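Example S7 (structure tokens).
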């Protein structure tokens, strides 16, 4: 058990549609200092209900100090601006303040977009470590998240999952959830991902794509099928990326 704030340490929370996970992170090494705890996302996942879960996770680790939390929406200076796959009451909510008030004195919470957090973690400790130039991380899950990095520096809230693809919001065509819903083979789904990523490639000419989300565990089934000019590598931090990236953001106050 860890009590009190220590330099370079922060508690990371990864808020998702089904589960909310948290652990204390050593941000200098990217390692988890406590076991990853998971609590089922409350329904409805209102700001207050999610705030209570954040409190439970933080108390469970006996932590007081900096806390970073991911959220699957546009987060500008702590305020949620969108709610594509989350409860609509989040739009306009100051997530930083809601969570900071909930955890109480001695702690401060900084909230950022989930894919942005994963991008920060992969750039620091994972698949994009030491890569110069433009790196785009795309996470394929319920939706499609994106992180744009230039020489390791994040440009937040790019929301490339909502580009138009064949007349649709791209994530409604090419998210991993679409593959599950329609029982699509990896081959069939990869054709959609390919069209989507070709579109992103034309817009940004990146130096590297990092693909994350649950499907990156089975990257060998679909990444080799992609026909892109840009190198594509699977994310390395898998289900720790959000927690680690959020903790880094908190220590470096990247959400402010
Ligand atoms: C949201 C993004 C989020 C992504 C992945 C999208 O629907 O608009 O903010 O990063 O899903 O969770």
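Recovered sequence:
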């Amino acid at each position: 058990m860890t009590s009190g704030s220590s330099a370079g340490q922060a508690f990371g929370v990864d808020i998702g549609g089904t589960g909310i996970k948290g652990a204390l992170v050593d941000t200098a090494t990217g390692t988890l200092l406590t076991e990853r705890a998971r609590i089922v996302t409350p329904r409805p996942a209102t700001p207050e209900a999610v705030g209570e879960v954040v409190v439970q996770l933080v108390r469970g680790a006996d932590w007081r100090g900096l806390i970073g939390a991911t959220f699957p929406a546009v987060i500008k200076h702590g305020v949620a601006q969108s709610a594509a796959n989350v409860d609509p009451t989040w739009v306009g909510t100051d997530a930083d303040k809601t969570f900071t008030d909930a955890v109480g004195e001695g702690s401060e919470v900084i909230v950022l977009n989930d894919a942005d957090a994963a991008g920060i973690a992969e750039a620091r400790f994972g698949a994009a470590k030491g890569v110069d130039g433009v790196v785009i991380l795309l996470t394929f899950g319920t939706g499609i998240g994106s992180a744009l990095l230039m020489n390791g520096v994040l440009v937040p809230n790019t929301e490339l999952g909502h580009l138009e693809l064949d007349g649709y919001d791209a994530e409604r065509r090419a998210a991993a959830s679409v593959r599950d819903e329609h029982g699509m083979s990896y081959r069939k789904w990869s054709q959609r991902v390919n069209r989507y990523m070709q579109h992103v490639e034309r817009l940004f000419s990146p130096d590297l794509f990092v693909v994350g989300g649950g499907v990156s565990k089975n990257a060998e089934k679909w990444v080799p099928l992609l026909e892109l000019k840009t190198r594509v590598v699977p994310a390395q931090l898998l289900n720790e990326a959000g927690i680690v990236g959020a903790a880094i953001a908190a220590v470096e106050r990247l959400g402010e």
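Notes on this example. The first helix runs from residue 47 to 60.
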